[in-house]
Automatic annotation (TrEMBL):
Signal peptide: 1-26
Family of this protein: Belongs to the bacterial solute-binding protein 8 family.
Organism of origin: Amycolatopsis silviterrae
Annotated protein name in UniProt: ABC transporter substrate-binding protein
Source organism superkingdom: Bacteria
Subcellular localization: Cell envelope
Pfam families, A to Z: Peripla_BP_2
SUPFAM superfamilies referenced in this protein's UniProt entry, alphabetically: Helical backbone' metal receptor
Keywords per UniProt: Signal, Transport
Domain Fe/B12 periplasmic-binding: 58-324
Keyword Transport part of the UniProt annotation: yes
Length: 324
């Protein structure tokens, strides 16, 4: 069921469109959409330059970075992949829309026929797609396609760049840059306000999987946001800066005693998935310094992969710092 706001927005959009159409007819001029219909422009990607529509109207976003990054700037893709809820990566304000949008297979198992069925005029994706199964050329046969990520020197997880590139592809780069500015200003404000606490505390961002636990460091998904806040990471003895998600056996949970604050992967209601809950339930986990001090928290922002979710993570960290 649509909300009253959605009904209102649809009504206003309809009235506005009618007024514009009437004005164009009365003046004998051509509308902006007519001017741009069919027009293309060059767009740079790590795999080469492609020609994309100046004003795409039917975008299929094959990955979560692109999909949620476009929602952040007010663009609503026609379809995307399934499975984002499995990793708790769906920002609550976008949950209803994501549940209803058509799916074109899983993020690692795109059904290219379903992509074509959406009649896209632009396909956007990310290097994390399984491009061995369907190559970029296969997508290009359906519509102009831009696959983002994988540029030389780029960090392994570079969501801040990817979401801006996706916004640029649909003509919304200024809106994305404005979000980036807000994010950076907020990070600087928190970093300055809580500088004393941040200098003394160490954080651990963890999740479970396959009977092991993983430490997510400064170049991991949510770790990039913590790093921008000036957070010190409990590194569990890991000195290799290229290893951003080291794995440990449950016998090594004592390595988390270095952490003053532990954040563990959960949904936005605070419920951890089975693999992580298995770790949280262990007596060894409950005996950790941070846990006994009441400083172990579930976080739904583990995969904050776009600016609006990242700013929600900033709020979450500020609350922890304020109450520490």
């Amino acid at each position: 069921m649509r909300t009253q706001y959605q009904k209102w927005r649809t009504t206003v959009a309809g009235i506005s469109a009618a007024v514009l159409a009437f004005g164009a007819a009365a003046c004998g001029s051509t509308s902006e959409s007519a001017d741009t219909a069919g027009a293309t422009r060059a767009f740079d990607t790590p795999s080469g330059q492609v020609q994309i529509p100046v004003a795409p109207k039917s975008v299929v976003a094959l990955d979560q970075y692109t999909y949620f990054g476009l929602l952040d700037v007010g663009v609503h893709p026609k379809a995307t992949a399934s499975g984002y809820t499995d990793s708790f990566a769906v920002f609550p304000p976008y949950a209803d829309e994501y549940a209803k949008v058509p799916k074109v297979g899983g993020s690692m198992e795109i059904d290219i026929e379903q992509v074509g069925a959406q009649a896209p005029d632009l396909i956007l994706g990310n290097k994390f797609l399984s491009l061995e199964k369907h190559k970029i050329e296969d997508y290009q046969k359906l519509a102009p396609t831009a696959i983002l990520g994988g540029a030389p020197g780029e960090p392994g997880v570079a969501w801040p760049q990817w979401v801006i590139q996706a916004a640029d592809a649909v003509g919304k780069k200024p809106e994305a840059e404005a979000l980036k500015k807000r994010y950076e200003e907020r990070a600087a404000q928190i970093k300055a306000t809580y500088a004393d606490k941040l200098s003394k505390l160490k954080f651990a961002l963890i999740n479970g999987g396959g009977g092991k636990w993983f430490l997510n460091l400064d170049e991991s998904w949510g770790g990039t946001i913590l790093k921008d806040l000036g957070v010190q990471f409990a590194r569990g003895g890991v000195t290799d800066r290229a290893n951003n998600t080291p794995e440990f056996s449950i016998e090594n949970l004592d390595k988390l005693n270095e952490a003053d604050v532990i954040l563990y992967q959960a949904d936005y209601q605070g419920k951890a998935g089975p693999d992580t809950q298995q770790i949280v339930d262990l007596p060894a986990f409950k005996g950790l310094k941070a846990v006994k001090a009441g400083k172990a928290f579930p976080t739904g922002n583990f995969y904050a992969l776009h600016y609006k979710a990242a700013m929600a993570f900033q709020d979450e960290i500020e609350k922890i710092l304020k109450e520490y």
